[in-house]
Design a protein that fits this description.
This protein has six helices and eight strands, in the order E-E-H-E-E-H-H-H-E-E-H-E-E-H. The protein is α+β, with helices and mostly antiparallel strands. The termini are far apart. About 45% of the residues lie in helices and about 15% in strands. The chain has one domain: Jann2411-like fold, CATH 1.10.3300. The strands form four sheets. Strands 1-2 form a two-stranded antiparallel ribbon. A two-stranded antiparallel ribbon has the order 3-4. The structure holds zinc ion. The site of zinc ion has 8 residues, from loops. Zinc ion binds next to loops.
């Protein structure tokens, strides 16, 4: 990374802040989601597939524990089992499904049911702030249930902050990467126009051409 000194000011290239378990940048050079929903984005983007490669941050209890600890959601000594791995993946799938709905997909009742179950397991209770002017859900459960509760609280906060609807999964079904849509009219569809946008368009073009040729 180079810096230039112009008129006594140091101009450093702005590098978009990634929020990514696997790569050191977001697709298309996007910046990570802001505020509360950054945690939801990180949680959903713990699995990725690209060109026959698959990355899974919740591969087994040790992987899951280490991700949750690294993200400040779990104490290091807490027990994590196989059932927790399955549950974390279920909740992730449900959240991803809501983010797909933010990108024009439909809301699946199963996904909503899973998240409500997760909220119950996390024992999310309304906690009033010390000033008495704010109240927000807070998990009082321990372990992985409590960790997941913090992710759900972050989703709720995003809904309050008005950022939730901009958190979407890529319209390329093979990608599904969660990205934050900063476009003015919330019209972003792909994690990266250069990668998924063009690929999807090329496929659609090929399909149309093939249909004509047949
Ligand atoms: Zn994509």
């Amino acid at each position: 990374m180079s810096t230039d000194i112009v008129f006594g000011y140091i101009l450093a290239p702005v590098s978009p802040r990634p929020n990514n378990t696997f790569f050191d940048s977001e697709p298309g050079g996007r910046e990570a989601a802001p505020g509360s929903v950054a945690l939801v984005q990180a949680f959903v983007n713990t699995v990725a597939e690209e060109g026959g490669q698959r990355w899974e941050a919740f591969a087994d209890p040790d992987y899951l524990r280490s991700w949750l600890v690294r993200n400040g959601l779990l104490d290091d000594g807490e027990a994590v089992g196989d059932a927790d791995v399955i549950w974390a993946r279920d909740v992730r799938r449900a959240l991803r499904s809501l983010l797909a709905a933010n990108n024009g997909g439909e809301v699946y009742p199963e996904a909503v049911k899973t998240l409500n179950r997760a909220a119950k397991r996390a024992v999310l209770v309304v906690r009033f702030g010390p000033g008495g002017r704010t109240a927000a859900p807070e998990s009082v459960a321990g372990g992985v249930d409590g960790a997941i509760g913090r992710v759900l609280s972050a989703a709720h906060a995003g809904m309050e902050e008005g950022t939730w609807e901009r958190l979407k999964t890529c319209a390329n079904g093979r990608c599904g990467w969660a990205f934050y849509d900063r476009s003015k009219n919330r019209s972003g569809r792909w994690c990266s126009m250069g990668v998924c946008g063009n690929r999807t368009k090329t496929r659609a073009y090929r399909r149309r051409r093939t249909a004509r040729e047949v």
